[in-house]
Design goal:
- The protein has 22 helices and no strands.
- By secondary structure, it is mostly helical.
- The chain is globular.
Length: 478
């Protein structure tokens, strides 16, 4: 089961004794109760609290808001160009602030490991409030307004390391082993659902400029700007409300741990990085996650730009992006619940999802090359291929997170998942960097999708899975 990764001392549970003390037992050598086999710890059980769902809800809403604010501009890029004078470079940079915000990712890993979840969440939510507020500052100078909007997007990007990394840490801290994958899926995928909501809210609230869609009534620049500002104010109010709720109640941990693994001693910050960088199996699955998810995240952020050359309207692009992410969130939670019931199947689930993603991305890419492949380019084919791609890739996120934690346990969850999400944002940042300076042709971006999915599939196929954390909970606690 891969137990060579941790020593016996590192795996020793630190659960305190429950309130009802058991009857004293005769002690054998080294203080182990008589009758307990060598190397086996006495039975220990955790406790779960109903408030865990409130903690999960607050964290998930925070991730939802961060994704919504990050993806504000991509779905309405044509309207934003007219209202604020944004260029193609500005639109790409507004999305690019997301991966740039991951630069201090290692600081947030350290903060989560040393200070706990409450301090990290409050710092993250305060950055989001400040960033959303900056975007709403009413100034008449268009250049200053641009800088404030860019600054707000950067501050919101700085919240990314917490909302995208902390889901496995939260699920281990608050949830029992048969609920962990489900909690990880909800906490991590709500961030993607926020990005999907931007595809829905933006195009429905903000009208496109004349000439990009058929409108019942013509719109003007001031009207478009007023509708965009209404969206910005609404997002600021939502972020402020979530921050207030987290400030009122968001404990770092429950009074009593829910499992043996939740109470076990973990590696230090420095030793965790040494363990990760020397683990070839971890590096394999880290690349298998980071490459396709990084490419897909960058592709989703500029989906409107990619679909505009093939005459897809801003509204249709918004609906395609919305349903692709929503489908991924629904299927991802269902897959995570399935993984909770049938343990030890994470690799098999990932192979199925990545195979589907490879086929769907290839279909979409070939469809966009209709002059070469002669495949029918219709609304139905675009919707189907994009939605299937989003379903397969987005639903793999919580499964990947659980596999990371199981593979490198007792490395803290925030550190292991932080490293892989940092790598994912590096890949997304590189692609958006090239897009920023080469935004007249997008066919190369489409080809990155099937290539990255196929590479990830091959890496997972060669990966040898292990379940250290599951072993500790299921075997040691029996």
């Amino acid at each position: 089961m891969g137990l060579g990764w941790s020593s016996a001392e590192e795996r020793r549970p630190l659960l305190p004794q429950p309130p009802q003390q058991p009857r004293p037992q005769p002690r054998g050598p080294a203080g182990v109760p008589a009758g307990v086999p060598a190397g086996r710890l006495p039975p220990l059980s955790g406790r779960v609290y109903g408030r865990r769902w409130l903690v999960l809800l607050l964290f998930s809403l925070l991730g939802f808001a961060q994704g919504l604010v990050w993806n504000t501009w991509g779905p309405i890029q044509n309207s934003a160009r007219l209202a604020f004078g944004f260029s193609g470079w500005d639109i790409a940079l507004l999305v690019f602030w997301g991966p740039i915000g991951f630069a201090p990712c290692f600081f947030f890993m350290w903060l989560m490991d040393k200070k706990g979840l409450r301090v990290t969440v409050l710092l993250t939510s305060s950055l989001m409030v400040l960033g959303a507020g900056l975007r709403c500052v009413p100034v008449s100078d268009p250049e200053i307004r641009k800088k404030l909007i860019h600054g707000g997007q950067l501050l919101n990007g700085l919240a990314g390391p917490t909302v995208m990394n902390a889901a496995p840490f939260l699920s281990t801290t608050w949830f029992s082993p048969d609920e962990r994958a489900t909690a990880t899926a909800i906490a991590s995928l709500l961030n993607y659902l926020g990005s999907a909501a931007a595809f829905l809210v933006g195009p429905l609230v903000v009208p496109p400029p004349n000439g990009t869609a058929q409108l019942a009534a013509p719109s003007n620049t001031q009207h478009i700007k007023d509708r965009i500002e209404a969206v910005l104010y609404a997002e600021f109010g939502m972020v402020s409300l979530i921050f207030s709720a987290a400030l009122a109640y968001f404990p770092s941990r429950p009074p009593f741990p829910p499992s043996v693994a939740a109470a076990s001693q973990r590696l230090s910050y420095r030793r965790s990085f040494c363990r990760l960088l020397s683990n070839f199996r971890f590096l394999m699955i880290a690349l298998a996650y980071a490459i396709p998810l990084g490419v897909f995240s960058g592709w989703s952020g500029v989906l409107d730009l990619i679909l505009t050359p093939i005459h897809v309207s801003q509204v249709d692009a918004g609906w395609i992006g919305f349903w692709s992410i929503v489908g991924g969130c629904v299927v991802g939670i269902a897959m995570a619940r399935f993984a909770d019931f049938i343990r030890g199947m994470l690799k098999f689930i990932l192979l199925l999802l990545l195979s589907g993603a490879t086929l769907a991305s290839t279909w979409f890419t070939l469809t966009c090359l209709t002059t070469v492949t002669h495949l029918p380019l219709t609304t139905a084919t675009l919707y189907t291929s994009c939605i299937l791609l989003g379903i397969f890739l987005n639903s793999s996120v919580p499964i990947f997170f659980e596999l990371f934690v199981e593979t490198v346990y007792p490395v803290p969850e925030g550190i292991s998942c932080g490293v892989v999400t940092f790598l994912s944002n590096v890949f997304m940042g590189v692609l958006l960097f090239f897009l920023t300076f080469y935004h007249t042709e997008f066919s190369w971006f489409n080809w990155c999708l099937p290539g990255s999915c196929l590479l990830s599939l091959l890496l997972i196929l060669c990966f040898r899975e292990s379940y250290d954390r599951l072993y500790l909970d299921v075997v040691v606690s029996v």
